[in-house]
Amino acid sequence: MSATAVQPRTKRDVRTASRWLAAFVVPIGAAAIALLRYFLPYDTADDSATIVSKVMAEPGRSSLVLWLAFIGILTLVPSAYIVGKLTRRRAPWLTGAALVLLIPGYLSLGWLVAGDQALWTGTEAGLDAGTITKLYDTMHPTGGLAAGIFVLGHVVGTILLGIALWRSQVVARWAAVAVIVSQPIHFVAAVIVPNHTLDLIGWGLQAAGFAAVGLAILRLRNDEWDLPTLP
């Protein structure tokens, strides 16, 4: 009696699904932060007492900010990696420098959100403004370090990634320019001339540029996107 040969199971090619997932994810983080900056109940340049009073006056907006930050924290690093996956072949050094700055910068965002979490929690717990202000001002020193890493990382890193998009020509020129100018606009709107609408435009330009990357991903063939699964 002869043994029946067992045919190896063919593994399903998941590259199409991964392309669609990447195209969907890539603009979400920037879009979430654009909305966060628009709905933020205070200005970044405000002093602590003013920030506390504005949060206490609009705790609902503060809660929305926390939800948007949560979405951003989950998706910003994957989005940077996805864009870098497209630009690294033609602009490897620029892409590498951009990701070295962007990934630590985006990861540091969680520390900054801890301050907003403390503001909302103190308000919901019924603490007085003076106590919340003291709590807000007594954050761990890593918060200040995280702020510096975030500002340097996401501003300079996004500019470099936009230049990589320009040089690699994986998207239209307008999309690369949108990414390049997005964070300088955000910096002006957040620090120099506080303006939430302008801040929305800045981060919105990055989201638009990344959405163009998503469309470019959908137009790729699977073999251009990734290597096939090994048998």
TrEMBL record:
Position of the signal peptide: none
Residue ranges crossing the lipid bilayer per the database entry: 20-40, 64-84, 91-114, 145-166, 173-194, 200-218
Domain of life, source organism: Bacteria
Key word Glycoprotein present: no
Key words, A-Z: Membrane, Transmembrane, Transmembrane helix
Protein name: DUF4386 family protein
Organism, as annotated: Kribbella caucasensis
Organism lineage string: Bacteria, Bacillati, Actinomycetota, Actinomycetes, Propionibacteriales
